[in-house]
Amino acid sequence: MPARTPRILGAFAVATYGLLAILFALLAPCRVWAFGSGDRGTKAAGFLKFGVGARAVAMGEAYSAVADDASALYWNPAGLTEIEKRSATFMHASGIGSSYFEYAAYGQSLGKHGALGTSFQYLSAGGITETDDATGTEVGTFTPYDLALAWGYACRLGDVGQPAFLDGFSAGLGVKFIRSKLLDSDQTAAADFGLLTPAYGDGRLRFAATAANMGGDLKFEQESAGLPLMFRLGSSGVITERWTASMDVGFPNDADPFVGLGSEYVFPVKGGWSLAGRSGFNSRTVGEVGGFTGFSFGVGLAYDKLSVDYGLVPFGSMGQVHRASVSARF
Asked: What is the pTM of this model?
């Protein structure tokens, strides 16, 4: 490794956790970070808030301190350092009508040089009929969509010459290109930051902090709107060898704060197979629509380093949200 590489990585580490400290300590009181339901529906690119990965969704989206695969680039970029070699995740979700949501991510460990990740998100609203404003007659159809391309880097701070008390801490940075199309289209860029602590208490407890979707505005016709900024504070705990629990507290700039709780229990099966049962609760959706909301459920089937996962989120009178994903470590 070139002599200047540790200095570059060290500069990245210092900049990352320094920026996070500034964001949490100084920007939180500002109007741009204010949260509250009064701003609901005022932000653009709402698809950035859609949870990715069936495992994470089934666990109530309490995942910032759990993420250890390619999807960590979405939940907490610092979690990329938990990838042993390489990881890939693919997810499909059906929405209302003909809408659908796709996600793909890849992450790779660089050993002591850190870890890299990249991902692709795509939301299609399906075909929508376009009418003439004057006559009300149909003039065709159009298909609104949103997409985001992201790239990220993470490193363990102790590996880049940081003070000894930072050993075991990880920091991550993600940057993304966002494009949104209605009748017109616009694009912007954003950044995500994340921190992940070492495992405390005999490796049973971890904590995380993230700031997501820090970027510009999207403009359609004469109206512009900012992105759905989000702070998260998370934790995960290994209750037994097979049972993991997690909690996230989120502070969005377009809704009230929310709490997510998750649980996962893994049942070993003969021949290298394992079956996981998952459940979660997220207060963000409670009260948004009538009926049963807030809870989530899921299962996962794994063989060696390949897993297939399913998540179900009941959404009251709006129906149910299904997510299916495939993950591989290689």
From this structure: 0.83
